[in-house]
Design a protein that fits this description.
By secondary structure, the protein is α+β, with helices and mostly antiparallel strands. It has four domains: 92 residues, DNA Primase, Chain A; 136 residues, DNA primase DNAg catalytic core, N-terminal domain; 48 residues, no CATH class; 191 residues. It is built from 26 helices and 15 strands. A five-stranded mixed β-sheet has the order 12-11-13-14-15, with helices on both faces. Its cofactor is Zn(2+). InterPro entries: DNA_primase_core_N_sf (IPR037068), DNA_primase_DnaG (IPR006295), DNA_primase_Znf_CHC2 (IPR036977), DnaG_bac (IPR030846), DNAG_N (IPR013264), DnaG_primase (IPR050219), TOPRIM_DnaG_bac (IPR034151), TOPRIM_dom (IPR006171). It catalyses: ssDNA + n NTP = ssDNA/pppN(pN)n-1 hybrid + (n-1) diphosphate. Keywords: DNA replication, DNA-binding, DNA-directed RNA polymerase, Magnesium, Metal-binding, Nucleotidyltransferase, Primosome, Transcription, Transferase, Zinc, Zinc-finger. This is DNA primase.
Length: 653
Amino acid sequence: MRFPDSFLDEIRQRLPLSEVVGRRVTWDKRKSQPAKGDFWACCPFHQERSPSFHVDDRRGFYHCFGCGVSGDHIRFVTETEGATFPEAVERLAGMAGVPMPARDAASERREAQRRTLGDVVELAAKFFETIYRGGAGEEARAYASRRALSPETQKTFRIGFAPAERDALKRHLAASGIDEAMMIEAGLVIRPDDGRPAYDRFRNRLMIPIHDLRGRVVAFGGRALTPDQEPKYLNSPEGPLFSKRTLLFNAHRAREPARAAGSIVVVEGYLDAIAVYQAGIHSVVATLGTAFTEDQIESLWRLAPEPVICFDGDRAGIAAAHRAIDRILPALTSGHSFNFAFLPDGKDPDELIASGGPARFLSEVRGAVPLFDVMFERETTAARIDTPERRAALEKRLDDLIGTIRDDRVQRGYRFAARMKLSETFSMLVRPRTNRSGGGRGRQSGPPEAPSISLSTALPAEPMELERLVLGLLVEYPGLLVHHAESVGRAPFLIDVHRRFRDALQDLAAEEGLWDGDGAAIAARLDGHFFSLLAEILGMEDDGLRRGHRLRARFPILAFHPSEDFIERCLVHFLSRLELRSIAAELERAVSQAEREELTAELWEQIQVYKREVEHREDEILRREREFADEMRAIRAAYGAALPSIEHAAAGG
């Protein structure tokens, strides 16, 4: 029996090759990248110790770089299971859940008709190309020029022109021996119900062929060339060759670039896709004027695990994204999602590339927003949450929406993320929120010359710097060890050698009479194996600089000789910073646990306690830093005013 190509293609699309091959091999976890459809194993066809057998889910193809065997789903089954071709197809159809076609003459005739229809559509594509290059295509070529389509791009995409005549294509196909019924079946000609002669579907339009995954022309998109022509874009109708629900424009060209890049961009129109492709971004496809379907979603995930849907940033583009969300949510699976890029200023990709080049477009794509964030914003932006009942209604809407996700693990993650975001949103109703971007970092509280760490930058990216600042103050001002022994003892140092150094300092603090001297006595009595660390913390004379230069570099206000009271309050502030960092780490661990496991009421309450504590401490720290900033300005000003009298005294005046 001959199986229709469409039937075999459906099996390949529904059934990942890795699922077929995975029954007979063990995947190498180090080399395989399941999210990218990339799998490696030791070859089942010859003996080997290192994995050289490669399966590419997106192409539906396997190849062994050791023995050279290669093939697809069907060949793998025939060669590993000894099945005949029909037996292999029947087994794979069962795995894919695709019903076997009836073995009758009618199905054979339909497949033959489909092949013939493909020939008819190909004849039409060649006709449109010929007209485009001739005198009648001058207006269409001018339009392509205004769209900045290069001759190479026009050739690659086989741009054509449908003349304005009523039946030019019909007459051409008839002269090639194609009967009118075939033209109608192929979607090229329309027969009116009132008995008038059939006429061409596409007239006076720039013609863009639409291909299937095998690169065969199956339909057309026609762009109007005059402002009064409606609709602006006209696609071929659904038929035996063409299904808008399953096809993506340019997918056959984008498949390999998407695999290489690990990403795919989805735009709204085929001319947008052509412009992006021409700009050198070949992993791009376009929808065909329909809402996202589950088939298209699955097709996109075969190209990349997280496609970027690129919409105009206007109201229509945002509305389209919101419609897409409802289609995508039920289909979400672990490791697969979508991101959304909303282009600025109402520009489409073509306009953005024309004004800012490919780099501008790519910057927007890289800034794409995750699906969850777009969904949450859609539900909360216009929501009224000023009463408990309205807040409960918002929670229910989100809960119902997330309930459509069929993958339990993904649904659990979305529920947790939604509860966290709702908690933050609702908390803003009862307390003013300060800007915590960076926890207060970046706001300058001293003059521009202050390097490294000031009070407002006392929590650097590296924990080491803050911990060494605290230890340096304890060495230089040993009395602080006595006054704040308990706080210093419980300070959560992350670095082990810093904890041991702190413990050694506290042991010295317990010795009677030690505090008659200054910090130099501490340095002299420390265990010798701490000397290199002491040099890093403090800065010693053998560096060729004055003692304490590293501490002053971390905390520049020390160069202005502030009071010990001020330094003591600063130390308390820095210890609070260390405690905040520890609590934030506990919060992060609890959140990670909740994402991995079932979110219990106890764990949720624990997360809320941590969040409230972090928020409270952040607010308190920011308030203190504003106060310290004023004090530091006053200290610097007072030190500058005192300089003349100091210099006069030094001169013996």
